[in-house]
Amino acid sequence: MVTLNKLLNVPSATDPDDARRRRLLNILLISIAAMTTLILLAVILVTITGLEEFQMQGLTLPIACLLTLVGIVIIYAINRYWSGQFAGALLLLILIVVSGFTDTPRNVVEGRSLFLFTIPILMASVILLPWASFIVAGLSSLVVSAIALNALQAVPPVPTILGFFSVALVAWLSARSLEDALRDLRILNLELDQRVQDRTRELAAAFSRNQAILEGIADGVIVFDNTGQAIVANPAITSLLEQPADRITGSNIETLIADKMNADDQETLVALLKNRETHHPSIKFGWGDKTLSASVAPVHVASGKEIGTVAVFRDFTREARIDRMKSTFVSIASHELRTPLNAILGYADMLQENVYGPLSEKQSGVLERIVANTGHLLSLVGNLLDQAQIEAGTLTLNTLPLVPSDLVKDVIGVMDVLAQPKGLELTSHVADDLPPTLLGDRRRLQQILINLVGNAIKFTEEGKVHVRTYRADDTHWALEVSDTGRGISKEAQTYIFEPFRQADEPLVREYSGAGLGLSIVKQLTDMMGGRIELESELGRGSTFTIVLPIALPA
C-alpha cells in the first residue's frame, strides 16, 4: 500500500484540486495498464495454444497492447513530472480516437460501440475541469459526424450528439458540486484553524485558564455531577439551548430538554448521559428550527476518580441542511435515471419480441445481457431513491387493508423464477391464528419480503427457502424468511443493516450489490413501528423475522 500510494500521489502538485485530479488520473492509468497487461497475457496464452488469431487495424493485438502500455507510461510520466492537465487531455484524446476505430463505422455511429464515447466525456470532468466534459463531448460529436459523413455518407446523428452533451451536462453538474463542496470544506477548515489560533491566544492571556477555556469554546458545554445535576455551563450553551444560565445550572437533563425534543430523542440523550461504561458516538436531534449534536464523555480528576459527565453540544443545522440537499439530489437523480432506463428496457423487450425483425443467436445473447443489466440498474436506482427518501423524511406509508395470504402468494409467484434455476424449493405457510385481513402498506411489505427472499435465494446453493407468517403475540404478527444457505457471521450481523454495507466474507463479495437492501428493510420496519430479528450461523442458514404491530380494519 505504501508503494501504491507513492505511485498514485504527485509530490510536485501544490494545489489541492490539481493534486486530486492528477491522483485520479494515475489511478485510471494504472487500472488501464493492469487490464491491458491481463489482455496481453490472455492473447499470448491463446496464441501459444493456437486456438485463435487476433487482429486489430492491421496490427496484432499483442503489439497494440504493448503500444498501449508504452503510451500509458508516457502519459504517467507527463502527469507526474510536468502537467496533469496536458496528460489528462492527451489520454482523453487517445480514447476518443481509439473509440472511433474499435468497430465498423455503422456500429460506431449507430450501434454497440457508441457508448464508448461517453467514457472520456465522464472522465473529462474528473481529471480535468468540470467544463472540460463539454469540450470532449464536442470532439466526440465531431468524430462521430466525420465517420457518418465520410464512411456512411449519412447525416450526422443529431440525437447522439445531443446525448453526448446531456452526459456532459450531468458530469459537469456532478463535478462542479463536488468541487464546490471541497472548496467549502477547505474554507471551513481554514476558518476553524483561524478560530483555534485566535482562541488559543485568548486562553493564554486569560487569568484563569480553566474558566477561560470553558467560556471561549464556541460549542455549548454542560458538566453534570454524579447525581445528574448540571454544575457548570459555558455561555455558548445558553444561546444553543435558548435558556438562561441560572436555569441550566442546578437542573437535570430531563428538565432541560422537556417539551423541546421528541420522545425518542429524549430517551436516547438521557441514556447517553447515564450509561458511562459504554462509548457512544454523538447523536443528532432537532431543537426548534435548529439541529444540534451532542457528545458525552466522563470527567475524571487526577486520581482517576470519575466525578461526573461532560456534554458538548454543537449547532449542526448547516451540516444537516447539506445532508438533506444531498438526499434531495440523490432522489432527483434517481428519478431522472429511471426514465431512460425504462426506455432502454422497453426497447430491448421490443427487440426480444422481434418487433424489428428476427435476431441472430449472438444478438439475442447480447440483448439478454442488456435486459439483465438494465434491470439491475433499475433495482439499484430504486434502492437509492428509497434510501434518499427515507433519509430526507419524505417517504410515506400507504396504509390500507391487506390479506397476508395474498401478500405471501404474490411474493412466491414473483421469486419462484429465481429459485427454480438453482433447484431450490421455495415454500410458504400462513398460520391459522393470523387475522385474515390486516392494515398495512402492501407495496412496502412486498418490498421487504422480496428483498429478504431475494437475498435468501442468492446466498443459498441447495436446500430450500421458506416464508412463514404467524401471530407473534396478542398484539403483533410476524413475517419470517428462513433458508439453508451459508449463513452470516456474528461480526457481520452487527453491521449488515447499515446503508452501503455488506458482509465482508469473500463468498458474499462475489455477488454484486450496493448494500442497501437490508438497510431499507430495517428502516421500513422501523417506520411501521416494528422490529427485525436475525438468527444465523455460518454454514447453517439464516432466519430473518419482521415483527409488526397488529392493526385491524375498522
Short description:
The protein has about 550 residues and is of the alpha+beta class. The protein has helices spanning about 1-10, 15-50, 60-80, 85-100, 105-110, 120-125, 130-150, 160-205, 210-215, 235-240, 245-250, 255, 265-275, 315-350, 360-390, 405-420, 440-460, 490-495, 505-510, 515-525, and strands at about 55, 60, 220-225, 230-235, 285, 290-300, 305-315, 400, 425-430, 440, 465-475, 475-485, 530-535, 540-550.
Which terms summarize this structure?
554 residues; alpha+beta; Beta-Lactamase; Heat Shock Protein 90; five-stranded antiparallel β-sheet; five-stranded mixed β-sheet; 20 helices; 14 strands; globular
Q: What would your notes on this structure say?
A:
The protein is α+β, with helices and mostly antiparallel strands and 554 residues long. Helix content is 57%, strand content 15%. Among the domains are: 217-315, Beta-Lactamase (2-Layer Sandwich); 324-395; 400-549, 2-Layer Sandwich (Heat Shock Protein 90), CATH 3.30.565. It has 20 helices and 14 strands. A hairpin with a 4-residue loop joins strand 3 (220-225) and strand 4.
Topology at a glance:
Blueprint (H helix, E strand, L loop, with lengths): L1 H7 L7 H34 L5 E2 L2 E2 H21 L2 H16 L5 H6 L7 H10 L4 H19 L7 H48 L3 H8 L3 E6 L4 E4 L1 H7 L3 H4 L4 H5 L5 H12 L8 E5 L2 E11 L5 E10 L1 H36 L8 H32 L7 E3 L1 H16 L5 E6 L7 E3 L1 H17 L5 E10 L2 E8 L6 H4 L12 H4 L7 H11 L3 E6 L5 E8 L5
Parallel strand pairs: 9-11
Antiparallel strand pairs: 1-2, 3-4, 3-7, 5-6, 6-7, 8-10, 11-12, 12-14, 13-14
